[in-house]
Amino acid sequence: MANINDPLIPVIGVVTDIRIDTPDVKTFRVVTPDGKKAFEHKPGQCAMLSMPGVGEAMFSITSSPTNKEFMEFSIKKCGCVTQWLHQIEVGQQITIRGPYGHPFPVDTAFKGKDLLFIAGGIGLAPLRSVINYVRFYRENYGKVDIVYGSRSKDDLVDYKEIIDEWCNDEGINVHLTIDREQEGWDGHVGFVPNYVKELGFDTNKVAIICGPPIMIKFTLAGLTELGFDKTQVYTTMELRMKCGIGKCGRCNIGSKYVCKDGPVFRCDELDELPDEY
Amino acid sequence: MKKILKKNLQNLFAAISKETDLFLPVLNSAKNAEFKKWTEGTEYSEELNTVRSAKDFFFPQTENICDFKTSGKNIEIIENSELPENFAVFGVRACDLKSFEVLDNVFLSEPVDSFYKTRRENAVIFTMACNRPKETCFCHTFNINAADPKGDVECFEDETYVYLNPLTQKGKDLLNKVTSALEDETEEPVKKIKAEIEERLKNLPLYNLSAESFGSDKTEEFFNRKEWDELSEACLGCGTCTFVCPTCQCYDIKDFNTGHGVKRFRCWDSCMYSDFTKMSAGQPRTHQKERFRQRFMHKLVYYPTNNNGMFSCVGCGRCLKKCPISMNIVKVIKKLGGTANG
After folding, report:
1. Neighbours of A196 (CB within 10 A)
2. ipTM of the complex, rounded to two decimals
3. pTM to 2 decimals?
4. Distance from CA of A72 to the nearest CA of B (A)
């Protein structure tokens, strides 16, 4: 029998670095055994990572495509595959396949625009890819605002990059918030949707939201109050996936498959889907 | 057009088997028809439909997609596949043949599923017109003609003969190799058989069932209908309908640790199961109603939306026979599809 070259068959990846970001988030650096990137991707796309015998799961690619050396995945410990990933050591091999999904329109709808990124908790993972892409091609975009919140200071993912790099970039304003007062935190305290309304952005920009569903819902309502149209707001979704290529039948919302038609959706497109997510 | 005396069918099966593996409907010990590989003496069953559909030939219940060996921190991927080289299937009904087209739209769209594609390319399909369609048949609803079954070689039968009409190059090539078992015939006997079948089809109780009110872009119209509550109320979530359905194509990917390595399988799954969409982050379809609605919305609205109006049901009637609570797509179509269906 001839060799089958099937999209479901992965390649080997090696975890070459593990960064502890928060008590339940680690960022894994992945390359192929010969030290290269497994494949190229666009901001917002995902990859299937797996450990044979444990399971396979879909993760957003956290690193920017402009990183030519490796891919990074910021992963929160919450299910079988992520629990396993959280106990591995550097040098561990995993399997990887991708890239999957429809990316953020960084080279079309976002181009030349002021951008407002709004993230909650681990929701920064997919947006980090876009943010660093925009920072790399800085001249292609206008002013950038980043609103990022989490439960506590310790839950802000890769706080170091935010403080050392993003906060020092010209034309980028970073607005951090945490849910409750905490010793050693003199920044804003409060939930992301309220903070967005307090900051009161002008509507001449594109907004990109990612976070827990409840945060997305209230932030979208807040943006609408500020005068944003849904066609100016993008988000990225998460549903259970097995194939990543629109065939296994489980990540659909109405006739759309999140793995293939998403995960990135413009918010007016979501309105056309049945309320089942 | 070729023909063979029914009493000589074994000669044809033997001749085909010399060229390629041959599968055909056979009665099992429980008197249910299932597709089995022909060996000398295997009797062809004229039973209208096999219990399991013919989708198994291209999309088997479990498919070993690859194996892994792990040692320390290292993983080795072993590509492993036991795909059949070439094979022929005899006695596929028009509904099941249409189901291949429905599945093709899923598995052969980019990126192509190479397991499915290889099996499709390696198969020669002999269909069989339905002389005795049943009360549970409603293929006509989906513009399928049981008197005109198509395939690589379309076959018809009367009391005495089986008639064979090759339609594709694959079909012609195979028939040419077994031509010594066959006699020539004109179109006339088959014309008569077709006319008789068409007459019988018209008298079926579900002949006038119409799915016209469903189709592309009807999500808004049907998704929030209150009738879903009543329709789904007794659903046990057993998944039998999806397993006997020739068009249900949802699958899971599961690993099995053999003790010596890991085998990765692609296996049938069902949107009727509660863990189908369950994530560590939550469950978008919390009740059986939502899972039930998903299955029928997919067949009657979502699939047509993505495939130029084609429905993902072929009216084979298997779910009508097998559902333990007698719920089925016909009841859904009648309940939601408007007064035209009574």
Report:
1. 26
2. 0.91
3. 0.93
4. 19
